[in-house]
Amino acid sequence: MGSRLPRFAGLALLIALTCFARHASAEPTLIMYCGVDENWCRAMTTEYQKETGVRVQMTRMSAGEIYARLRAEKDNPQADLWWGGTGDPHLQAADEGLTEEYRSPSLPKLHDWAQKQAERSKYRTVGIYLGALGFGYNTEEIKSRHLPIPACWSDLIRPEYKDEVQMADPNSSGTAWTALATFVQLMGEEPAFVYLKKLNANINEYTKAGAAPAQAAGLGETVIGIAFQHDVIDVAIRGKPVQVVSPCEGTGYEIGSMSLIKGGKNTDEAKKFYEWALTVNAQKIGAASGSYQVPSNAETPIPPQAPDLSKIKLIAYDFAKYGSSAERKRLLGRWTTEVKSAPK
């Protein structure tokens, strides 16, 4: 009798472990690529998990990196949802059929610019926030080194700022792609590339992430950082000596977006998150996490720290053209060859 008890105990343990494994495998799961600030990414996933019990596996990358990842994983998608990051790469992914068509019942609750983002993508993406491009400068460095205060894009190519300007690489960063597309639309393509070559002489580093130049300016690692204005404001609110600038010539802007990844293995869970992310309560998480973009749900309060869009000269940004994968490939190829690789 005593010899049989261990066998029964072992069998019971095996059954219990099998049941646990089946239960664990049945746990709702969502795999998400996130293109905003790390704090906001984590706050979104934590809150959603708390409210729904769905396990969210999140990877944070720049928008350009996510787009490249989707292209590489096209035949075997590894994620279900792409949340956040500049809208142009979302449009480019839609153009290539990397994302799924989905018409949210919440669309009528969104600002016109968010609905238009969905329309131009044939409902393969949707706008979740808006942010204006600009730059920030370190006020202490400007003062102590007796440098002129920059107010315009044209100021950034002044010889006084040699090796004192930082921006991201548009191959990886959605922010920098917006900057490249903005310069082309503001100036015309040929004058824009003349400008970019002159700017290259003043660039000390092309960073991987779009918010990094704002952070570097705040730390005094660079005098000027080209970034979205809300990223500069976030650095300033954290107590760093940085001043945000809306360039005098005018500037472009982003429509941060969200897309369902074609072929994702957890489509139903992705759609549930998609709907949740368009609600007022979900969109309030951005400001609470230190991200001060304008939310897309018309009922979501605009953070008081957000740039006042009525005081910014926004260009008529051509999202259809600069959201196409062909234009992206062409302009990035030209920028990499003629600008980044050019001797200083």
Question: Layout of SSEs?
Answer:
Layout: H1 5-25, E1 29-34, H2 38-52, E2 55-60, H3 63-72, E3 81-83, H4 87-95, H5 112-120, E4 126-138, H6 139-144, E5 165-168, H7 174-187, H8 189-200, E6 203-207, H9 212-219, E7 224-228, H10 229-237, E8 242-245, E9 253-260, H11 267-277, H12 280-283, H13 285-288, E10 294-295, H14 319-322, H15 325-340
Parallel strand pairs: 1-2, 1-3, 5-6, 5-7
Antiparallel strand pairs: 3-9, 4-7, 4-8, 4-9, 4-10
The gist of it:
It contains 15 helices and ten strands. By secondary structure, the protein is α/β, with parallel strands linked by helices.
Low-confidence stretches: 1-25
Instruction: Give the DSSP E fraction (strand runs of 2 or more residues).
Output: 15-25%
Number of domains: 2
CATH topology assignment of the largest domain: D-Maltodextrin-Binding Protein, domain 2
Give the termini distance in whole angstroms.
Answer: 86 Å
Radius of gyration: 23 Å
- Helical percentage: 40-55%
Please report the number of helical segments.
15
What is the CATH first-level class name of the largest domain? Alpha Beta
DSSP strand tally? 10
Q: Supply the helix-strand structural class.
A: alpha/beta
Give helix and strand order, one letter per element, not per position. Answer: HEHEHEHHEHEHHEHEHEEHHHEHH
CATH architecture of the largest domain: 3-Layer(aba) Sandwich
- Main beta sheet: strand number and arrangement? 10 strands, mixed
Shape: globular
Q: Give the full name of the CATH homologous superfamily of the largest domain.
A: Periplasmic binding protein-like II
Q: Look at the structure and give the mean pLDDT.
A: 92
